[in-house]
Amino acid sequence: MKDFPPKLSRRSVLKGAAATVTAAGASTLGAPMIWAQNIKDVTLRQFGTGVSNLNEVAARVKEDLGFTLEMTALDSDAVTQRAATQPDSFDIADIEYWICKKVWPTGNLQAMDVNKIKNYDKIVGIFRDGKLTPESTIAQGTAPHSVGFVDGVDGKEFVAEESGWMTLIPTIYNADTLGIRPDLIGREINTWAELLNPEFAGKASILDISSIGIMDAAMVCEAMGEIAYGDKGNMTKEEIDKTMAIFTEAKKAGQFRAFWKTFDESVNLMASGEVVIQSMWSPAITAVRSQGIPCVYQPLKEGYRSWGGGIGLSKSLSGLELDAAYEYINWYLDGWVGGFLMRQGYYSAVPETSKNHMSEDEWGFWFEGKPAQGDITNPFGKVMEKAGAVRDGGSFYDRMGAVACWNAVMDENQHMVRKWNEFIAA
């Protein structure tokens, strides 16, 4: 892995003279300055999914900022439960926006002041007004901006406009689709409907996280022409029942080889060839390819199911620890983490800072959809693609511009979860 120096070094500021606060540093960092002699004693506890709770990030935080970041990786359901029920067990919740819809009403997170976020004005529009470009149509589901703002420091309700107070500071997102084994399928796949094609009986899989799986199921049912949803991200009970009936019938007919909950499970199913088409995440595709096994994140004519995540702060975080958390957020958006994540196929909330931590060829391949000029490696130096390869789905604007729906929490969430569990148990 090429070790890119940070665009902005904070070490000289944070680890400088013991009781010195430099005006230049204060204006540059945006967040309150932290006494250098105390920063090394700070430990922040972060939890989230394995997607972004990475040991490499914690190590870099220690190196660049001087404090300790303890990370715990959980699955999405466990993340939701912990954020909603154990507010004193964490300082930082690294969660998805649909989870925020469940957690914010509990009062366990605190609103964040965008005036303390140095790169706020560079955050992509998806997270600010919901639009990738001024001409974009906002997709169905829990679009991040719709749960991204509250009306003040003690705001309890989400507001539609940029209010200056964010529930989460966005960090990572992607456009998800079906992963396939082209060598084992041997023909073109261009629609979500293929997941239930009897041709793949016993060789298909869908992820068993109800709030995400239901969205994939809806994309499939709509593509099959079976259901015309009013809003896939907020289904009626009748729409939920019909969706789950279609998938239960397919399950009883032997369509599914397995259901997965974790990243590693999805990789193993695909790499082994037990499954040839399934719900998948971009870095899982990358992980299969890194084993020398053909695997494609297939663009589909109906578009993508998207998700986004961000950093939330515990309501109990205050003082030096709160200052350190803002310092961490600003560091996170400053580019090194973005480059690290984008070399796995994710997108950064502030792409332009990530560009400073990627080679021209990496940026061209991952962001612009250009053919690779040389070997494309993951953050750990493993070759992912050879010269001439083009990213599945093309450029950032091609992929994120084709989002049909976002992961969502529905008004009928309890009914949906019950029906989903009946489907899994059928």
Describe the structure.
The protein folds into 3 domains: 1-41, no CATH class; 42-174 and 306-355, D-Maltodextrin-Binding Protein, domain 2; 178-302 and 395-425, Periplasmic binding protein-like II (D-Maltodextrin-Binding Protein, domain 2, 3-Layer(aba) Sandwich). The protein contains 17 helices and 17 strands. With 426 residues, it is α/β, with parallel strands linked by helices.
Question: How is this structure best summarized?
Answer:
The chain is α/β, with parallel strands linked by helices. The chain has 17 helices and 17 strands.
List the main descriptive attributes of the protein structure presented here.
single chain, 426 residues, alpha/beta, D-Maltodextrin-Binding Protein, domain 2, 3 domains, 5-stranded mixed β-sheet, 17 helices, 17 strands, disordered N terminus
Largest beta-sheet characterization: 8 strands, mixed
**Uncertain parts:** 1-32
CATH fold-level name of the largest domain: D-Maltodextrin-Binding Protein, domain 2
Shape: globular
Q: How many strands?
A: 17
For the record, the CATH architecture of the largest domain stands as: 3-Layer(aba) Sandwich
Number of helices: 17
Strand content: 15-25%
Can you tell me the number of structural domains? 3
Give the name of the CATH superfamily of the largest domain: Periplasmic binding protein-like II
Strand-pairing-aware structural class: alpha/beta
Q: Helix content range of the residues, please?
A: 25-40%
